[in-house]
Design a protein that fits this description.
The chain contains six helices and 35 strands. It has 496 residues and is mainly beta. The termini are far apart. The structure holds CU-O-CU linkage and copper (II) ion (2 copies).
Amino acid sequence: MKKISRRMMLGAMTTTGLVTVGYIGLGMPQLAMADEMQPLKIPTLENGYLIDGVRNFDLNLQRGQSQFIDGVSTPTYGINDNYLGSTLKMNAGETVQMNVTNQIGRISTLHWHGMHLPAAADGGPHQLIENGSTWQSRFEVKQHASTFWYHSHVMGETGFQVYHGLAGVIIVEDENANSLGLPQDYGVDDIPLILQDRQFNDDGSFAYLATMHDSMMGMKGDKLLVNGTLKPFFVVKTDQLRLRLLNGSNSRIYNLSFDDGRSFHQIASDGGLLEKPVQLTKLTLAPGERVELIVDVSDGKTSLLQSTSPNAEQGMMGSMMSMFEGGTDGFDVLEIRPATGLATGKKLPQKLADITAPNLNAVVKTRKFVLDLGMGMAMMGGSGTMTINGKSMDINRIDEVVKLGTSEIWEIINPTDQAHPFHIHDVQFRILDRDGQPAIETERGFKDTVLIPAGQNVRLFLSFADYADAERPYMYHCHILEHEDGGMMGQFTVVA
Ligand code: C2O
Ligand code: CU
Ligand code: CU
């Protein structure tokens, strides 16, 4: 009800040309806010600088103050910024060096989510950066063109640090993708959308983990920030818009569609372009996942990207469930306003990339991973009791040892009554099947994070190439950050 009324009021405002109208009596949150839309913030594009052919990025983890709500200041973390980080652009095949300086006043790390690299360069919980010091990570970009991201990954503190802003987008380009004529003018027809729900305290600060419910279910907020913008709109000047969506939320799953029901094309999943564009009217995006979409706005009409309640289809019971699970769960994501006299865009190619089928003959081993919520974490005073295969994360224990140059099947089993996005470091895997049903078209490409709905078993195909290190492990974990911090994480090494 509330959602519809707001939307209708917004519609009325735009047609009458009124700019600001506060709305009253619709259960206003304590922090008063004008119902005014803001231009979408676009993270600064950072190309780094070349030294002897190596692309260097200087990244400063810092504290800042951000104004998400008019006149209200929120203490935040950012990377070369007050909140979130610059978008880092790099090319497949080149070597990059990340020079990460920590100035947030507490220990941190920076992990390159989705990147295939040596364990020592991964930026996980083993590559801690003391406050005041600099960590260097150098690796070759052995990726397909896609959208990756980076974020803090400190044992037990990932949720807190990411929530406060330690995250950013990475764009990898390659020759194939550059030859397709896809929109790729950053900030103009190619824009990142970092989706994050946030809960605010009355003093404007982020309210992180106020209740045990937040720890068990994952932290959720009642306001949606997109690139750190509340109620954003974007004016598009071309008839094709490429959206690089990143679910950078701690735990919320988004169900995305347009308010006018328009279709769009998904062109990429986590780790690369799909074989061909797939036409959709809605999609689900779980924490850690990315998709690239092409939206056609040549009709010149304003459209609203929205996220609907996952329980909406379940009617009355569904909305009661939503209330029970933490209230608001429908959001306006982005209003897209086409400028007048749109430039003519290009045609979407029929084919995007060659994607070979997983070679099941190469599989040498099948491993099973059973997820469990255990007793929760808040009850135990923060030390995790959530598990994978009955074990809570222990930084001194290697759970799995994999042989370099082999392929395996990992079966992820979720007997809990909650969905978990499962993420594996170092590899881009392929989804074989869900409860025995073959992967759908949009899940046949490269993935590093996969949503496992309650009660489901998903089988993944993984190949371990290039890097071996018997000492330093990679992580696999639930990307609900409160579950990761709560112990639903394990470690594997790749050995020669
Ligand atoms: Cu996005 Cu282990 O992380
Ligand atoms: Cu990762
Ligand atoms: Cu989980």
